[in-house]
Amino acid sequence: MEARLNFLADPTAGKAVKHLMAAGQAIRHSALPATTQELVSLRVSQINGCAMCIDMHTKEAAAAGETPVRLNLVAAWREATVFTEAERAALELAEQGTRVADAHGGVDDGAWELAAKHYDQEQLTALVLLISFMNTANRLNIITRQPAGAYVAGQAHH
């Protein structure tokens, strides 16, 4: 499969993508735990069907020491016993924040309150930004059919 567009070949797209990636780096270096960031990024990408981001975040999480069991169970986290209560709260917020078209009202108060119980204001802000960022990245990659499979852990952080 070949990508429909090369974002870096177009000057306007290149500038915009550069700013998006800078925003992604700011979120990456936030107070939100790195493990939570990878789990949320992976789950949002699974929901949206973004193969490139699933490839990237599975490999990044594994390189950071995440276990295969937890990575394999992210798609069914509600029934899994391997996630902390804080991670479960983040995954719920991520799902509701990603499925807004299906939610008829967006993120419910229960999901918000549970996330706020486990994350301070700075972390919660980073979590909301991450969910939004991943949805944007997923859509850019899906629309342009960016191929998956060749990503190497660390590649996006240079």
TrEMBL record:
InterPro entries named among the record's database cross-references = AhpD-like, AhpD_core, CMD-like
Name the domain of life this protein comes from.
Bacteria
Q: Does the keyword Oxidoreductase apply?
A: yes
Carboxymuconolactone decarboxylase-like domain location, by residue?
A: 19-95
What are the alphabetically sorted keywords of the record?
Oxidoreductase, Peroxidase
> What SUPFAM superfamilies does this protein's entry cite?
AhpD-like
Q: Which stretches are transmembrane?
A: none
Any one GO MF term held by the record is: peroxiredoxin activity
In terms of PANTHER family, this protein maps to: 4-CARBOXYMUCONOLACTONE DECARBOXYLASE FAMILY PROTEIN (AFU_ORTHOLOGUE AFUA_6G11590), BLL7811 PROTEIN
- Protein name, UniProt field: AhpD family alkylhydroperoxidase
Query: Which organism is this entry from?
Result: Streptomyces candidus
